[in-house]
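Before relying on records like the one below, remember that each one covers exactly one chain. Contacts with other chains, cofactors or solvent are not represented anywhere in the record.
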Amino acid sequence: MGARPAGPSGLVVLTDRWQARRPLPEVVAAAVAGGARWVVLREKDLPRAERAALAAALRPLLAEAGGTLIVAGPDPLDGDAVHLPSAGPYPPPALGLVGRSCHDRAELVRLTTEDYATVSPVFPSRTKPGYGPPLHRAGLAELIRASPVPVLALGGIDTPDRVHACVEAGAAGVAVLGAIMRAEDPAAAAATLSEAVETAQPPAATTGDAR
């Protein structure tokens, strides 16, 4: 077996067709045009066949740009990349790329073979109002230092200033949902947030608290 692929970085888009202003494939295509190279397919309320068909429609949009579709949940829907909830399954399945949602130090230290984790909520979120309390930059930085894997910041990240705060705290990237799904122009929103990731200054000494 070869080396495992690098985990997500930069701008990572989470889907929610109920909040999307246009059909989901159109929104994803626009986000990719704006610079997103990682998309997490949620839509867990769909029957498997419909969700698999949606995954099959989205994968080429990303593949053409060198991107990757990750599926939320343990079923990769005929792919090789999943993002698991904090509740399980443990141990994670043996797939090409595995991430997990985490919210505190206890969940982070349970990670074993996962490639990356999301940490949330960093800021108050319109998508999940009242979910928290928000970590803000200091809390995010503390959890990143405790994490054995790269961390994506998630929750209320909808402006360049908030992107900068997350990257400056040590995040490998930012995961966003509403900022893209609810955008009048998803391509422009993705471009703005992608540029913010690229121009942010990561902390000078983050070589590895990898345990």
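The domain at 10-199 is CATH 3.20.20.70 (TIM Barrel).
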